Amino acid sequence: MRRLLILGHGYCARRFVALHGAAFGSIVATRRTGSTEAVDRPVSALDFNGQPDEAIGAAFDEASHILATAPPGAEGDPFLPVLAAMAGADRASRSVVYLSTIGVYGDRGGDWVDATAAPNPASERSRRRLAAEQDWAGFAKKTGASLAVLRLPGIYGPGRSVIDDLLAGSARRIVKPGQVFNRIHVDDVAEAIGRAFERRFDGIVDIVDDAPAPPQDVVTYAAGLLGLAPPPPVAFDAASLTPMARSFYSENKRVSNARTRALLGWRPNFPTYREGLAAILASRGSE
């Protein structure tokens, strides 16, 4: 039986279960001990306090597939020390998918890049992700599991898009000349996870759209879909941004998915933000 263990039951994991959960005989997802966070069927919640225990040991021992999405902290991935302590119970056919970030490439001055390039993370957040990738690679090698590292850009989808921001009155049209970002619809992330599991893929790929674009263009297009006037442009230097938001603008690159298409047999159903935003708006109309 295919049994899935989800380490970090966030936005992408929930969408993967909604679209592909039927492929598994059982699904267990971790949540922090004491959390009242609800999980939807067919997922069973597993409280995790950062220490090995009987419940996490049983879930790990039974899992044929592991989806790891939790962000690493200063001490690294929160789950790996626990799983490493139980590695003797591993099964060689286990397939692991780890969700990482294209932030590991750092700033490329707007040039194209893919997973064949050497990482050069600039932010502490991205350096931690790269270290976690390497730690997961060591774990996979030790236990005989396959490891698919999926590097992701900014993720959008139902409930988390510029359409939602515009309707809430919180959208801003920040302009930094020459700045572009890749994006990816959450459904395309879910599809990539499914393909990685199906193929027992072992390697690193970028799950990104076809058209990295200036952020202000995305806001303008979404406003047009809604029949609204776009927010006034705000120069980047004059914009009030959190340190994390400002750090995103410090890196400018175009990430290609050509290698991913060839290796994983994946292609985005929403190749640009235009198709993705139109689908989000259509889904709101059908609610």
What is the strand and helix layout of this fold?
Layout: E1 3-7, H1 11-20, E2 26-32, E3 43-48, H2 54-62, E4 65-68, H3 80-85, E5 95-101, E6 112-113, H4 124-143, E7 146-152, E8 154-156, H5 162-168, E9 173-175, E10 183-185, H6 186-199, E11 203-206, H7 215-226, E12 233-235, H8 243-249, E13 254-255, H9 258-264, H10 273-285
Parallel strand pairs: 1-2, 1-4, 2-3, 4-5, 5-7, 6-13, 7-11, 8-10, 9-12
Task: Explain this structure.
This protein is α/β, with parallel strands linked by helices. It has 10 helices and 13 strands. The strands form 4 sheets. It has a 7-stranded parallel β-sheet with strand order 3-2-1-4-5-7-11, sandwiched between helices. Strands 6-13 form a two-stranded parallel ribbon. Helix 1 crosses helix 6 and helix 7 (215-226) packs parallel to helix 10. The longest helix is centred in the middle third of the chain and has 20 residues, at 124-143. The mean pLDDT is 92.
